[in-house]
Amino acid sequence: MPHSLYNKMVLIEEYVSLKKYHTFGIDVAARYFCEIKSLEALYSLLNLLKTDHHYQHLPVFILGAGSNVLFTEDFKGIVIQIGLKGIRIIDETKETITVEAAAGENWHQLVLWSLEQGYGGIENLSLIPGSVGAAPVQNIGAYGVEFSDCFLQLTAISLKTGGKAIFSKKDCEFGYRHSIFKTALKNQYIICDVHIQLSKNPKVNTHYPALRQYLAEQSVTQPTIHDISNAVISIRQKKLPDPAILGNAGSFFKNPELVLSEFTQLQQRASHVVHFPVDNNTVKVAAAWLIEHCGWRGKRIGDVGVHTEQSLVLVNYGQGTGQAIKALASDIQTSVFEKFGIRLTPEVCIL
Which of 62, 59, 98, 75 minimizes the C-alpha distance to 18? Predict the structure, then answer.
């Protein structure tokens, strides 16, 4: 039964199914569950976790939209879902605006908001599922753009002390699908809001080959930010299944980055491997190509499998378990390593 605690500001529910709170749709439960819709409620909850012996030693998991997590079993601690809302302009110049977006905002809705205002910079990141607060954790990226390109700073609250901290771009240690919140500061902070800088006179980014191809097919020779967003949405919808219809978390693995000597060795095994140069000494290899050429595309095992259109996407056909998806991912990693000598790293957080 749900019960309200700490000055009626925080509602902590017991034995809550997480099936509707994450895009894989796995039927697992949280021992305790709390949705946070205000900073006051967040501070109250953190005080409760620190002072009430019943909660003091429980594991904590911070949940946004649940689009990058795989639950393999019931969570025995407390799941805190961040529902903080709000988008506002906090600074402006002739060329740029600075936007503060609360962590609980839907990322794609923020992109649509920026397009409505005529501001550019994040249109290539259209239709990426998830919340604003998850964007810096993952350093989300797509079609030649990463979140860190527009990021200025974020505000976060320490789970341990309740103290507020401001993190700059340097502090976040951004990398490819990486930030300090996935390593040294994992599970130590709750992100409350982010500041991003957008352009009033945007220059569109069409560096990504699939994007250029789509625009050419549509005879768009001078694309606007709206054209870029529409193109990205169309490409993503064609390649990626809708989580509301078929449970998934988007790309399950990162694209491996190899130094030039490693890539040369790979080409001796696979001369036609799809790849993209990162810099003079680093090459990014398409994980989807590796997986597909190990025979996994469209393969189904029980009620889980690999998507028919995109080999990077593992899917739950309805009654699949997190353990089954984890086992499938492990088998894919093994086969890719045995054939190509490359270890795939999951992009998804596995619990």
Answer: 75
Q: What is the percent of the chain with per-residue pLDDT over 90, rounded to a whole number?
A: 61
The catalytically annotated residue of 177, 179, 229, 311 is 177
Number of domain units in the chain: 4
Among this protein's residues, is 251 annotated catalytic? Answer: yes
Asked if the structure places residue 195 within a domain, the reply is: yes
Q: Is 300 a catalytic residue?
A: no
What are the backbone dihedrals phi and psi of residue 97, each rounded to the nearest 5 degrees, phi first?
-130, 150
Q: 104-129 in b/e burial notation, b at 16+ Cβ within 10 A?
A: bbbbbebbebbbeeebbbbbbbbbbb
Are residues 77 and 170 both part of a single domain?
no
Domain assignment of residue 19, given as a range: 3-82
pLDDT in tens, 244-295: 889 998 889 988 888 888 888 887 888 788 788 777 788 888 899 999 999 9
Find out whether 314 and 291 touch, Cβ atoms under 8 Å.
Answer: no
Domain at 143, CATH number: 3.30.465.10
Q: Is 92 one of the annotated active-site residues of the chain?
A: no
> Domain with 323 in it: what CATH number?
3.90.78.10
- 242 domain-assigned: no
Is residue 52, in this structure, part of any structural domain at all?
yes
Q: Which of 179, 229, 251, 311 is catalytic?
A: 251
Residue 166 within any structural domain of the chain: yes
Q: What is the dihedral of CA 198, 202, 205, 211, to 10 degrees?
A: 100
Element (H, E) at 227: helix 225-239
Task: Please state the pTM of the whole predicted model.
Answer: 0.83
